[in-house]
Design a protein that fits this description.
Chain lengths: 952, 72
């Protein structure tokens, strides 16, 4: 671990490539044209005092502390706003400059509390540093006059405080909120002496539009905006660069530590994915890692109605292994399996699937990507030849048109959402295809969607094919690209198909609910842009035709030549932190690491040779198949690694039935999650702070996860899996995750050049990384598609079997919200509940009025599958006929309602379309009452757990 | 496993491939998909279903299943 020293160059790096040579303090310096004098000096190791400048923000020139003398120039220009010029001669230090700077610093200090010794920023205060640098020794003005020292502190935000008495009105926070985050929640209100930072309309932070991304806190040079954790614990003394364990953006963070105490998470400005930005989850919501609910001792029990018994690691592992072996002895080799986690590291995921394939002797391994982005894997592999997105996040900065389909980046992928918003503010055009008015459409300052195709849930394929129809029939194709890069036979077939009248915008208007003129306009805008990029999320994949829509999206990009360079591409926004990685690591039952089918003899021989066992050539069970087989009786034991299927999967009464049907459910997790309530063996997991490894984000970026504290349960997750493998009779002897990655690299062409040494040296690597691409691959399919020629496929619209009726007249679609994450196991155990403490049913005012529902009412939501009850949120964000909820709280039971419909190719559940009946009610549903009772019983069995050696 | 579930899954696969104008390719598509992604006990069960006279599968799916049965 290294000390937390980061150089602040004062202004951002110039993007220009031409070189300029100048002289600063007698030294000849060459920098890129467009670089500020301040940055040129900093790059040469010459420090110029500053307050309002920081290299994450455009220069502002307000504090005047950074002024310099330039030969031939009038006065004393600010070095932050002055670009370098060829032959310029700059002096940064002389008596005159020192006098002026001292005068400026004196004015600042004359209205600043002199409580440095007890200030939370002591030792990390830029004002303190600047005043020290200019040599201020006395303040002549005293505190007798007007000042701001009595300004009231705002502590409304759970994670940071705002102390205006310490504010120097440098505007860094305001600019960070605008430039970096794009929320514009802050402003400088008043003029002259009255100038002050105002959240919203002079509101407390929590009542303003602030999204708590932390950019303002990061930018603040004083203790005005300060993390409460730093106020509580003091300044950190060491730090390590690691990777966020929340969404698929995979932000790089500096974990600031005090011994083994995590003081704060600070976004790493060298992070390849996030460039120093963060969201409320990664920046602040880490308290779950040391929450009192963590279970840190292994436990076993015979039946799920028994109290848990705390046991040693040895006994827990031996119990798990003996039960699994007994099931195999009684019911055959295929009666057990496992589920890998998209929240765990690549190395851990790799080990779990290896344990199943080599240790269990079957291919019954699957991953939670089954319920989110499995259609991405299928659709992009089929068309492009690789199961991954095509770009890096930075690519969005070169997009001229951005097409967002079924994604809500400002909530689901907020840091990337900010990058996208920045590009949109610069003038890129925006097309949104979504049933809801997401924040990009109606709540992003200075951004306007050129088209919002507010379609009916379930009609994605019809819309995407209609877009293709316009592109083909209006000759907006890039025939040259297609001729050179794509399979012509499939192209001709596709062209003829999409041109059919049934696929025209006019013909599908009744299906989609979108007027044909808008579809035609959107298609023209997308196809005619120099660079057009598509971003999509679970609103595309979680449908019965999820894979078809992914294929349709790939068709659009190929037909218009929007593949293979920056600014274009097909970009799946992955849900969890390591969804890409868990898929890469061979978690699907039909393929080995690197997306190679188990039936491929050559690949199988490679793994058989490396792993020393015979491997199966047939695909194993997918997660929903496991449930079906469990209920039927042929699947009786499961190892669930960091995944909460009892909450996250659809039709959870069916899932619970399956779990109750099994003889041995082994759960490895941080908490007694919903699945663990059905478990017989509990193996305590380790948080991302307690282990080494790597995560791979949505842009294929492999980033380091670094252990900054001792695992609370004594073991890292990969060690537990290794122990289980050894107990099952399949030997594993890794001593560090780097050895696991070395094995992955040996066996996987896309990872051949990946090593911990290279990740340490480069910070992160985007696969493929091999002999042809030793430093990784930011943009895929640059010269040719991975499969050779890009393959077009036909995308016939097939309506979902889930239909509305007089009994179930509304369509329910589910999703997520900014402050909560997935099943909420982590974020529910943080202060993020201040923003979202329950799942609510969003309903359009018209529907609410017809049904007699007012905002905040309890409403019953009933589908053909089940019924639950939640509070109503009346909002015109919805369209009439469509309701929405999140699934972050287990007792909300959002997945009691969802059905067993799934994507035709991958069985990804159709979370996005459920026909429901909504009515005002007075009490929880029968399911909720039963489940609450079951949960309370399980909580009691946990609290009554028997100590080691204690008998019931 | 429940036959109705397997039938639904198989027909969903068929619904994607049925738009292929070349029927032989459509049948091949269904067959390959089931081979690639269905665990053997699921394949066995859908074969048993068709061999027992089950007739709820789309034509191209039933034909694909008969090909799979022939090559088991």
């Amino acid at each position: 671990m290294s000390a937390k020293i980061e150089i602040d160059y004062g202004t951002p790096a110039s993007k220009l490539q031409d070189k300029v040579t100048l002289e600063i303090d007698g030294r000849e310096i060459t920098v890129n044209a467009g670089t500020s004098v301040m940055r040129a000096a900093a790059e040469a190791g010459i420090s110029i005092p500053k307050l309002c400048a920081t290299d994450s923000l455009e220069p502002f020139g307000s504090c005047r502390l950074c002024l310099v003398q330039i030969e031939g120039a009038r006065g004393y220009p600010a070095s932050c706003t002055t670009p370098v010029g060829a032959g310029m001669k700059v002096v940064t230090q002389n008596n005159k400059l020192a006098d002026i700077r001292r005068g400026i610093a004196e004015l600042y200090i004359s209205d600043h509390p002199l409580d440095c010794l007890t200030c939370a920023a002591n030792g990390d205060c830029e004002l303190q540093d600047a005043v020290g640098a200019v040599g201020l020794r006395e303040v002549r003005y005293g505190f007798g006059g007007d000042n701001h020292l009595g300004a009231e502190k705002d502590t409304s935000n759970p994670y940071f405080s705002f102390d205006p008495s310490k504010c120097i009105v440098c505007s860094r926070c305001v600019r960070a909120c605008e430039e970096v985050q794009g929320t514009f929640a802050l402003t400088i209100d008043g003029r002259g002496f009255e100038s002050h930072v105002s959240p919203g309309q002079n509101q407390p932070f929590m009542e303003s539009e602030c999204v708590s991304c932390g950019a303002c806190v990061q930018a603040c040079p004083t203790a005005t905006l300060m993390e409460k954790s730093v106020i509580e614990h003091g300044q950190p003394e060491h730090s390590a660069i690691t990777t966020c364990a929340y969404c698929g953006v995979g932000c790089s963070f500096r974990a600031d530590m005090k011994g083994e105490q995590l003081v704060r998470m600070v976004p790493d400005k060298n992070g390849g994915a996030n460039h120093g930005h963060s969201c409320v989850k990664g920046r602040f919501a880490f308290g779950y890692a040391t929450h009192k609910d963590r279970i840190t001792t292994p436990m076993v029990r015979d039946k799920i109605t028994d109290p848990w018994r705390v046991v040693s690691w040895e006994e827990a592992i031996a119990t798990a292994a003996s039960r699994l072996k007994k099931i195999q002895a009684d019911y055959g080799r295929h009666a057990i399996g496992g589920i890998t986690s998209s929240r765990c590291t690549n190395e851990e995921t790799y080990l779990v699937q290896k344990l199943v394939r080599a240790g269990f002797g079957n291919n019954n391994v699957d991953t939670c990507a089954r319920v989110c982005h499995s259609p991405t894997g299928y659709g992009l592999k089929t068309t492009f030849g690789e199961s991954s997105g095509t770009q890096n996040f930075d690519s969005v900065a070169k997009a001229d048109v951005i097409l967002v389909i079924g994604a809500n980046p400002t909530d689901g992928h907020p840091v990337f959402g900010s990058m996208m918003k920045r590009r949109l503010r610069e003038g890129a055009k925006l097309i949104v295809v979504d049933p809801r008015s997401i924040d990009l459409v109606r709540n992003s300052p200075h951004i306007k969607a050129d088209y919002h195709l507010k379609l009916r849930p379930g009609s994605n394929v019809a819309i995407v094919t209609a877009l293709a129809h316009v592109i083909v029939t209006e000759d907006l194709l890039d025939e040259q690209f297609v001729t050179e890069r794509c399979d012509i036979e499939s192209y001709q077939k596709w062209k003829a198909f999409v041109a059919l009248p049934k696929n025209s915008p006019e013909a599908v208007a009744d299906i989609t609910g979108v007027d044909a003129v808008s579809i035609r306009g959107a298609a023209r805008l997308y196809a005619s842009a120099p660079n057009a990029a598509i971003y999509y999320g679970l609103g595309v994949t979680e449908h019965s035709q999820g894979s078809t829509t992914v294929i349709g999206i790939a068709n659009l990009a190929m037909a218009t030549g929007n593949i293979g360079r920056e600014g274009v591409g097909v970009n799946p926004l992955r849900g969890q932190n390591n969804v890409q990685g868990s898929c890469d690591m061979g978690s699907f039952p039909h393929e080995f690491v690197g997306y190679r089918h188990v039936s491929d003899a050559k690949t199988r021989e490679l793994f058989e040779s490396a792993w020393g066992v015979a491997l199966e050539s047939e695909p194993g069970l997918r997660i929903p198949n496991m449930f079906a087989a469990a209920i039927e009786g042929s699947y009786r034991g499961i190892y669930v690694h960091g995944e909460d299927i009892a909450q996250s999967d659809p039709d959870i009464q069916h899932v619970h039935h399956a779990l109750r049907s099994m003889d041995c459910v082994i759960v490895q997790d941080l908490f007694l999650n919903e699945t663990a309530k059905f478990a017989h063996v509990f193996l305590p997991g380790s948080s991302f702070l307690e282990k080494n490894g790597t995560f791979t984000n949505a842009e294929r970026r492999i980033s380091p996860v670094r252990k900054v504290m001792t695992p609370l349960a004594g073991k890292e997750d990969w060690q537990v899996t290794q122990d289980l493998a050894n107990a099952m009779g399949y030997p594993m002897h890794y001593s560090h995750p780097s050895e696991i990655m070395a094995e992955i690299a040996r066996l996987t062409p896309q990872f051949a050049g990946v090593s911990y040494e290279k990740i340490d040296a480069m910070g992160s690597i985007q696969w493929p990384c091999n002999e042809q691409h030793p430093n990784g691959t930011p943009t895929m399919h640059a010269d040719s598609f991975v499969r050779g020629k890009g393959r077009f496929m036909l995308t016939e619209y097939v309506p979902t079997e889930e239909r509305t009726s007089s009994k179930y007249p509304l369509i329910l679609t589910t999703g997520r919200i900014l402050s909560q994450y997935n099943v909420g196991a982590q974020t529910r155990r943080t202060e993020n509940v201040a923003w979202h403490g329950e799942d609510r049913l969003e309903i359009h005012p018209h529907d609410a009025e017809v049904l007699g529902i007012a905002d905040g009412d309890w409403v019953g939501v009933k589908s053909r599958t089940g019924e639950t009850v939640m509070h109503a949120l009346v909002t015109d964000r919805m369209q009439p006929g469509v309701v929405y909820t999140t699934f972050h709280f287990p007792h909300s039971g959002a997945n009691v309602i969802t059905t067993d419909n799934s994507d035709w190719a991958t069985n990804c559940p159709e979370y996005k379309v459920t026909a429901v009946h909504v009515a005002k009610v007075a009490q929880p549903s029968e399911w909720q009452q039963q489940y609450r009772s079951f949960s309370e019983q399980q909580q009691s069995l946990l609290e009554e757990r028997l100590a080691v050696g204690e008998k019931a | 496993m429940d036959n109705s579930n397997l039938i639904k899954m198989a027909n969903n696969i068929g619904s994607f491939f049925k738009s292929e104008p070349d029927r032989e390719l459509a049948v091949q598509g269904v067959e390959q998909h089931i081979r690639n992604f269905w665990e053997p006990r699921m394949r066995r069960q859908i074969i048993e279903y068709t061999q027992a006279g089950g007739n709820e599968l789309m034509d191209i799916v039933a034909e694909a299943v008969s090909h799979i049965a022939a090559r088991q």
